[in-house]
């Protein structure tokens, strides 16, 4: 086959070098180049022509691509066909592409450097070289390298063609050709509406999501729908997988899927937007937050009977929201309402000598007991206020309290973050550390021979552990910079400095004797003619005679049942301190407008994702009623495997004819229990008269 010759200028363009450089290359190595002379059409000096076969592989490939373009241009094809053969990058706005796809552009530039390096290789063993070159430089196979090379040479030919037409520089084609063609995201033109909705129905089905259904499971069910509905075809598995990823990421439906798979409670904990409380405008002791914590280590505890066992110590403490300082810390074996009151008294009379304006409490039963709040535990709206008995919080001068929402730890952010700090910077230093109490991952647990450590006397006592705790609070936590204070823009960024120097809220504490009395348990009791029966004992007093057959309020110390203190309508009946009527306001200073707005955002977020979930579960049969869905009773298929309920035979029951049934089982009021017979009553009155005479 005869050789094809090109001019020196064309040869230089194919080799991507200058004209003079091409002349020097031929002059230095004349034996490598096949040269001929041709007469110019205009006459004059003959032209030097170079055979294509004597050029480099890169140049030969570029020439072939140029010839293909010439054939396309000379062929009598329709305009539509011409447009189809034109690469996408020829019509692309290069400035827009670089601005919107910078990373891909720079990767393509680096790839272009590798392609040019490969094209310059012209020695033997090119196939073996291509394989090693592709693996070393690209981390891919030689077929991918050849594909890149073909695109590069085609782009070079187009750049040369357009340059000859208008003189412009189109070298950027050589980079764009190695980039991915931008496309409109989320079009999926092959997905019919019923297929799209069927995919949503399956993927966002609550049971399917809770069972962690996979894309493979979805596609299996989609194929079943194709068969039962007679669909001609459905998209490939890879296309369906990409569509699901598109729904989750591009269509922002991941949160809705999380709601379906994990439920509303976990959705609120993990996904719902969280608010940050602005604590900068607070005063020290204006708001304190309380909670309980179980240390993840073991100590030796001596029981009242002298027995020594290993326990995990419990902590009841309060944190001042302004300064993040810990106050009222009490360590115990088991936290209860009495320990909580001890913690409050320590905060009031030992650590601060100040009553906080508001407290933020845990939702635990100890914090929300009626004797603490003045309300029944389940009365979150505070509608059943007991006028006769004040709650402990209000009685000592706290204006109001707020309860954390059940199961939502993030609503107590400051104290929860503190306990996280305690675990990482204090508890892990103890040899008896055994890992997090609530950790669900295996690696969070640490195996220790706690029983052996107890027997060998290697465990600290409760008292020794508390001493280490107090030392850590004073020498480490209180004097180190706190990220929460820094983020709030506080001037003083350690708990101690903020506590000592920031503006304080102050309200004097009541007499300690009064607070001590308030610590006693409170109950409402019925006064019988023999007195008050409480905890197996009978309490009598002459003053109780006026209140027989009525209810009174009593206070008592469970550790000393010798005396109880009786109140009626807030007035003292027996020796005790008076109580006055308490009314909780439904709104207070802590309930700020910012908090209301945040709760509104949470509600809107949940509503939005519920609507998305509802839309995703609209049966695709509503799009076209000719199709069959997931209802087996209408000839469809079951989405999930489940046992169908057994049909029970209908029973015929005779309607009763008696008046009891007709009257609607109206129950009569129980008669009052006759406490004592007439004889006992008479003898009791005689005994009382004798006592009065004495």
Written description of the protein model:
Among the domains are: about 80-175, no CATH class; about 185-275 and about 600-645, no CATH class; about 285-375 and about 400-500, Ribonuclease H-like superfamily/Ribonuclease H (Nucleotidyltransferase, domain 5). Helix content is about 45%, strand content about 10%.
| Helix-strand makeup class | alpha+beta
- Average pLDDT reading: 75
Rg, nearest Å = 43 Å
Side by side, the strands of the main sheet go 13-12-11-14-15-16
Please give the CATH architecture of the domain at 287-376 and 398-501.
2-Layer Sandwich
Largest sheet: 6 strands, antiparallel
CA-CA gap between termini: 146 Å
Give the oligomeric state of the chains in this entry, treating copies of one chain as homo and distinct chains as hetero.
Answer: single chain
Number of strands: 16
Give the strand content: 5-15%
Give a quick set of tags describing it.
elongated; 27 helices; about 45% helix; alpha+beta; Nucleotidyltransferase, domain 5; 6-stranded antiparallel sheet; single chain; about 700 residues
